[in-house]
């Protein structure tokens, strides 16, 4: 209760002192923090002039950089089924890696150089299969199946290999990965 009475006594003192002044120029002292709010915390914000984004066609919603590679091949009305597939990572390992541990390779996928994609295509002839590989997208089409696969890592589309195993009716696609730091990791 003492805290409340001391606040009231300070307010009463403030009123008495302000009533004693008859100067018209006198203004009530204002606290330096009275006009501040939560937006004033931190360093002062400077306005930056951001140039407006200019698109070639004013009706475009996205720029070409924003559209993922291979999205033009997505067709929701295509009734062909998606085949079963499996993505495996492969390492090029020598005896020095296995027995002596001379390289910096470990069993993680970060140390893998190649990506192996196994696609099961039952009752399909290899002549009926269309395969197109881009840097981040694999497109496979046949009369019964359609697969549009966004790849987990960028690949070299020109050095890939494909092999159709007729006994298992499986297409195996081996692609060399291209990651930013591979020149350091595999030097």
Q: Please state roughly what percent of the residues sit in beta strands, choosing from under 5%, 5-15%, 15-25%, 25-35%, 35-45% or over 45%.
A: 15-25%
- Sum up the overall morphology in one term: elongated
Class by alpha and beta content = alpha+beta
Runs in which pLDDT lies below 50 for 5 or more consecutive residues are none
Q: Measured on Cα atoms, how large is the radius of gyration?
A: 35 Å
Mean pLDDT: 79
Key terms:
elongated, 187 residues, 25% strand, 7 strands, 4-stranded antiparallel sheet, alpha+beta, 15% helix, 3-stranded antiparallel sheet
Kindly summarize this structure in a few lines:
With 187 residues, this protein is of the alpha+beta class. It is built from three helices and seven strands; from the N terminus they run αβαββββββα.
């Amino acid at each position: 209760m003492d805290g409340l009475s001391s606040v009231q006594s300070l307010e009463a003192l403030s009123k008495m002192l302000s009533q004693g002044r008859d100067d018209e120029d006198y203004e009530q002292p204002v606290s330096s923090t009275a006009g501040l709010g939560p937006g004033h915390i931190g360093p002062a914000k400077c306005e930056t002039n951001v140039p407006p984004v200019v698109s070639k066609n004013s009706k475009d919603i996205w720029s070409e950089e924003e559209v993922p590679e291979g999205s033009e091949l997505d067709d929701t009305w295509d009734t062909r089924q998606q085949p079963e597939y499996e993505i495996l990572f492969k390492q090029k390992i020598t005896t020095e890696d296995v027995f002596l541990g001379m390289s910096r390779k470990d069993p993680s996928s970060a140390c893998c150089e190649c990506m192996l994609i196994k696609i099961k295509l039952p009752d399909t002839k290899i002549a009926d299969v269309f395969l197109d590989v881009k840097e981040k997208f694999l497109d496979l089409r046949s009369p019964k199946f359609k697969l549009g696969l966004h790849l987990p890592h960028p690949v070299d589309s020109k050095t890939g290999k494909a092999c159709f195993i007729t006994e298992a009716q499986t297409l195996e696609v081996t692609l060399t990965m291209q990651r930013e730091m591979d020149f350091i990791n595999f030097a």
